[in-house]
Amino acid sequence: MIKSAVVAAVVTVTALVAVPAAHAALVTHCVGTGGAVTVPNDLLVPAGESCTLTGTIITGNVSVLAGANLVTDGVRIAGDLQIAGDGYLDADGSTVNGSVELAAGGYGVYLRDSTTGSVAVRPQGSAPGESFLFVEASSVSGTVNAQAGQVRLDRGSAVSESVSTNNSHYTDVHDSFVDGTLSVLNSAGGSVVCGSAVRGKSTFAGNLGGVQLGPNGRLDSCASGGYFGREVGISNTTGGVTVDDTIIDGALNLAGNSPVAQVAANNRIRGGVHGPQALGAVQRRAPAAEARDTAVDRSAGDRRTSAVREATAAGPADL
Q: Which candidate, 216, 210, 217, places its Cα nearest to that of 189?
């Protein structure tokens, strides 16, 4: 009898210990609106649905499935955040302790006044549409790696490690900080870096749309030049290269650019300029009828408005 009682007690204790593990595996589905509550596990936005959260704390990971929308305001996420094809994330004043990943064919990621871990945009592949990653007044503790889409860092954003893009539509860095290296390769629309500081080595190669460092280029308008803490290399670029009002604490290496790079006399380049160049003032070009990111801003605004409307119509989510 004593032996049986001991066995029964062990079984009971084992069952009780197993409860938290089962609880941790739960996933909360969000359809509709959520407020200042704590979600004690992972959260999922089902395919094609919309979820808006304000002041919510999520202790696990977050998944936004295909065609779904997640709009956050003052939200804290302890884990990673993944967005599937045609999925959309709009984060304002929010924190993601883990990484943010936009899958192939994802609609986009818009970060404003937010803090995240590393951010990745996967290759587009055969997925329709074009993704975007806009980071405004936000901090990324880690790397930014984009293999597709339209990429913009702006309004005092900061990346603690490297920024690298390959096959993006364009990659622009305005009024921002990159503590590591900057690499922009094979961009159809080229790259603009204005009013920004990059501590590491910078590489621009194979960009069809051109490269503009500083103001007065043909790609985009901006008010000031920038600072590069190491050498800068620009090679095999078509569409024009302009370097104006920029400080480079290293060498500027130029090779294979057609037409040759225009390097203004007002640059401060510690290691000198190496490679073919056209000296003299960079001529200010007439501004385009619409800024290159205006269309994406409009599309993001429309998607956000639609998501909020759909979530509101669905009512309070069962969080």
A: 210
| pTM attached to this predicted model | 0.89
Task: Map out the domains of the chain as residue ranges.
Answer: 25-177, 190-291
Q: Which helix (H) or strand (E) holds 186?
A: none
Q: What is the pLDDT of residues 221-267, one digit of tens each?
A: 888 899 999 999 999 999 999 999 999 999 999 999 999 999 999 99
Note whether 164 and 191 are within 8 A (CB).
no
Report whether 123 contacts 101 (CB < 8 A).
no
Task: Compute φ and ψ for 310, nearest 5 degrees.
Answer: -65, -40
**Could you give the CA distance from residue 54 to residue 61 in angstroms, rounded to a whole number?**
17
5: Cβ contacts below 8 Å, ≥ 6 apart: none
Closest CA to 151 of 135, 138, 137, 162: 135
Cβ atoms within 10 Å, residue 275: 17
Helix (H) or strand (E) holding 10: helix 2-24
